[in-house]
Amino acid sequence: MNKTIRLYLHIPFCVRKCNYCDFVSFAGKEDLFDDYTNALCREIRINGKLYQDYETASVYIGGGTPSILKPEQMERIVSTLNESFRISGTKEKRKGLRRQRIIRPVTEFSIECNPGTVDKKKLKGYKKLGINRISFGLQSSDPDDLKMLGRIHTFDDFVESFEGAREAGFDNINVDLMQAIPGQSVKSWMRVLAMVSIWKPEHISAYSLIVEEGTPFYEKYKNGELMLPDEETERDIYYYTRELLEKSGYFRYEISNYALPGFECRHNIGYWRRDNYLGMGLNSSSMVENVRWKNTEDLSAYLSVFADPKIEEDISGSGAEYLAEKGIIQERKILTHKEQMEEFMFLGLRMNGGIRKQEFFDTFGQDFDFTYGPVVYELKTKGLLEELDGRVFLTDRGVDVSNVVLAEFLL
Ligand code: SF4
Asked: Coil, strand, or helix at residue 200?
């Protein structure tokens, strides 16, 4: 069987920093877009040579705000990707997790867009480039929420962008929402969900806000000025989300992700299933054949290393070591057998189908019950895990305290 790899490209620019965001992204650096595009294209070409034996399973352009780039810059990036990696664009029939037969392109190719940074022309251009999935960062439909979060767009901007995407022919759209934000109640959240459901995106992600150090929200939190919903409200928000979305035809396939049948995000499933993935661009992460690493988060170092055309000739043969020497690849680590098993468990259990004991054995050559039997038994007794037909998965109560449950699988 062919080896496969999933590709992630990071675009670290935004119009403005949101108040909760600690991602590596920069505002007001429009003058660097071209240099960054050139650097990223060079990194793509280099990696295309290093990973020429791999078939591309999915592509995800994330950020930051990828849609902030000019159309010709995005075009250059995608053309370089197509020239450097094997990306198949033909269609296949496949079964969704709920066994409906639908026709989807073989390679899922997603791009993150922020409302207010795309217009119909740009979206049509993405479609022409072979991008077949759009992920809109909306977070909320409420004007006060959007302002408080520091978002650059209104709900009307989202509607315009969403309609533009449909018009451009996108039939696979995700909307990112944020739960448990300051001042949110179950009622206000349900209004957000209802507003978004009207547009029937194929996929909805609903993650809870995490207050990260170094953000404006953290400063407010420290000073007691951030009124976050209490734990009970947060749990209620989670339950009602599931209830309302299931009534609308979505199903939860991962702790925070909902999809119409057949529209689960294959790229993200790849992360939870521990497929090979290669990150390119600033601060991107990779894991290929159980070796993990991260790209530098130093923008000027990244630009200057890839500004030198010689790097494309110099690299032949030495590959990853060379990029590590140049300070691009950092924190390179070969995962131990134990770490791989732990990851298999705590990533796999995030999905509602959980993990297959047989797959554990096939992957690690070790009996599942021998390795995890006592932990599973204890968590089953507490009603946090369930076992059925050789699968182990979280119960609803287990999802409630998933962080605690997943931590039990560290050996
Ligand atoms: S748009 Fe996304 S990446 Fe950019 S600042 Fe806001 S949350 Fe961060």
From this structure: coil
DSSP lists the bridge partners of residue 205 as 176, 257
Going by alpha carbons, the residue nearest to atom 5 of ligand 1 is 17
Per-residue pLDDT for 90 more than 80? Answer: no
Q: How confident is the model at residue 2 (pLDDT cuts 50, 70, 90)?
A: confident
Q: Residue 357 domain-assigned? A: yes
Check whether residue 93 and residue 238 sit in a common domain: yes
The pLDDT tens digits for 323-347 are 898 999 999 999 999 999 999 999 9
What distance in Å separates the CA atoms of residue 17 and residue 20, rounded to the nearest whole number?
A: 8
Q: Are residues 72 and 218 in the same domain?
A: yes
Q: Is ligand 1 within 6 A of the CB of residue 139? A: no
Question: What is the per-residue burial (b if ≥16 Cβ within 10 Å, else e) of 215-246?
Answer: bebbeebeeeebebbeeebbebbbeebbebbe
Number of domains forming the structure of the chain: 2
Residues 241 and 367 in one domain: no
Examine the domain organization and report whether 397 and 262 are in the same domain. Answer: no
CATH number at residue 248: 3.20.20.70
Which amino acid, residue 341?
M
Burial class (CB within 10 angstroms; exposed 0-12, middle 13-18, buried 19+) of 211 = middle
Q: Which domain holds residue 174?
A: 3-272
CATH at 367 = 1.10.10.10
Q: Is ligand 1 within 6 A of the CB of residue 260? A: no
Each residue's pLDDT tens digit, 22-40: 999 999 999 999 999 999 9
What predicted TM-score, i.e. pTM, was given to this entire model? 0.93
DSSP 243-278: HHHHHTT-EEEETTEEESTT---HHHHHHHTT--EE
Mutate to test the pocket of ligand 1, among 16, 17, 111, 152 (most ligand atoms within 8 A of CB): 17
Last residue of a domain, one of 272, 288, 322: 272
* Helix extents (H) in 116-185: 120-128, 143-149, 155-168
Where is the domain boundary, 227, 244, 272?
272
Q: Which residue has the tokens 């069987």?
A: 1
Of 86, 197, 81, 195, nearest to 146 by C-alpha is 195
pLDDT digits (tens, 9 = 90+) for 350-359: 999 999 999 9
Instruction: Say how many Å lie between the CA of residue 115 and the centre of ligand 1.
Output: 12
The encoded tokens of residue 55 equal: 């078939």
**Atom 2 of ligand 1: nearest residue by CA position:** 64
**Statement to judge: residues 235 and 346 lie in one domain:** no
